[in-house]
Amino acid sequence: MSAWAVAARRGASWPVMAFTRFKALRARGMPLLCVGYILLVAVLAAFPTFIAPDEPLHIDLEDSFNPPFWQSGGDASHLLGADRLGRDQLSRMIHGARISMVVSFATVVIGGIVGLVAGLVSGYVGGWIESVIQRLVDAVMSIPIILVALAMVVALGPGPTLFSTPVNIIVIISAFIWAGYARVLRSEVLSVKEREFVLAARVIGASTPRILRVHIFPNVAPILIVIVTGTLGTVILFEAGLSFLGAGVPPPNPSWGNMVNDGRSFIEIAWWVSFFPGLAILLLVLSFNLLGDWLRDVLDPRLRGII
User: Fold this and answer.
1) Is 162 strand, coil or helix?
2) Which of 20, 55, 181, 206 gets the most CB atoms within 10 Å of its CB?
């Protein structure tokens, strides 16, 4: 019996149970720095107007290329320096965190649901339905995503916004990432549906929706969680790439990708304009990937040392 279950049986309070669960996870090598950084970015994304020291679009040409506070000429009014228009880098990065998190989580939710349904149905039902879904998956995965997405974003424009994030970007990225979910989950379903408890459910007359919901889904959920965690980092990098190329979040709205692009031409005289948003992207993608590796080992020990 797990430490969480023992604490629950003893009538422990929720804070005690949460702390017990945290110690159990830490004992299994949970990457605390990665989780802490992800939570920090999530908090910044949730409350940017309360945390940011300045307005992200506030222009002050007198502070153009003001260096970070520790460099000569820097001051506390711009802790991480200012860009060519005198806009505070820290404030723009905090507001840009919202766009990265909204795009990643919204895309993973939409793409994950579509891919989950496609994987469950194609793996369990089989027949011509499986053939159609898998041919569609093959077609989507054979497309050079960055080129097609770039063309689609340019053609359609940013469209309406969700929390300052263009909806079209979310929809376009979702239209590509679902195929990866469908392919992996289908292979898992093909394995699970031949187990004894699923065969027993068929014998007693359980309906297909009930078998998928009660017997199949709980057994593929761990691999789904691992895929989701890894995809979050990929989507953040993808959105940053589109913004860097000028097809993502339209300026002057701050996005980590277009902030890196803003400082590209001034890297020799103002390295901080591109460096700090680039570092934020690197750390967030790395954190999600390391968390995904840890979840893979915890949720599916069979894969430990193989992938």
Assistant:
1) strand
2) 181
